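From: lab user (bench 3)
To: helpdesk
Subject: output format question, protein + magnesium ion

Hello, I'm new to running complex predictions and I'm not sure whether the block I got back is the full result or only part of it. Here's what I submitted:
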Amino acid sequence: MLKLDNLSKVYRVGAFGGKELRAVSNVSFAIEKGEIISLIGESGSGKSTIGRMILRLIPISLGTIQFNGVDISTLKGAQLKEYYRRVQGVFQDPFSSYNPIFKADRVFRIIRDAFFPGMNDADWKRKINSSLEAVGLNPNQVLNKFPHQLSGGQLQRFLIARALLLDVEFLVADEVISMLDASTRIDVLNLLADLKSRGLSILFITHDLSLGYYISQKSVILHRGRVVEMGSTRKIYNNPQHQYTRMLMASVPRLDQKWEEGAPNTAAAASYDVFSGDYAVDSAALVEVERDHFVAQHGNSPSR
Ligand SMILES: Nc1ncnc2c1ncn2[C@@H]1O[C@H](COP(=O)(O)OP(=O)(O)OP(=O)(O)O)[C@@H](O)[C@H]1O
Ligand SMILES: [Mg+2]
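Helpdesk reply: Thanks, we reran it on our side. This is the complete output you should expect:
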């Protein structure tokens, strides 16, 4: 459905944009219909940059993104609008992605004007109600309210409901639950799982490996803009091969492991200098170490 091929992003930085920062390098993976893929990596690893390229918010530097076989960089006008009808994003901080002076109704109205100008009031109302119900919100709880009158969890669901109004097929969910408290988190995670079971595809962006484990069958581990490990989430989680993945694992508490068992991992992670850049990442090739489990092999010093 959505296919990333050797995707790269170079930002121009520094005074007068004289320097280049390679935020994403040669990333390739595909997401099928009804699939959730987790994109996991620490802060600055390029996760949101990939999400923003998928949403056409920033241009691609190199490589391609295809949606149902069509190169999205070629979309213009009506085709681009059609793309946004099917591909939408929900972001980390629900408060910042929502204009504070707009009431919830107004946010829906903008979508109606842009995408459903011919729909009559009764049909529109039914459509709103069904998308709010799909995310577990009572229309009376949110309509006619300003964003600050909603809780973080309500607002996040409201934003997902907004995306659902648009026959959305693919959702980029960028750290959607990091701002939520533990109980609301589970609700929103379960909501995403529910949407998946109805055929929605989701790119679930997170820095938290255990959230990826909870929600997705497939994961892509990103380190400094490059894929270091990807494939079956279960296999990666139970048998991490790349040093960076092991380090990520060691830095989160695991429910299924006693602390003593996890301790050696922590020691290994501490000795791995993530920022040294000592390995030849450019020459890294992904090798299938077991079925549906790929690991980057770096130059002549394998990292596993
Ligand atoms: N508009 C921009 N101009 C220049 N550099 C940028 C820009 N946006 C992001 N970067 C840089 O690109 C790299 C990747 O950023 P990105 O936002 O994709 O990371 P992230 O994985 O989403 O991190 P986080 O978990 O903190 O959200 C970082 O080094 C960041 O500083
Ligand atoms: Mg980000």
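A quick orientation on your result: The first helix runs from residue 47 to 54. Let us know if anything else is unclear.
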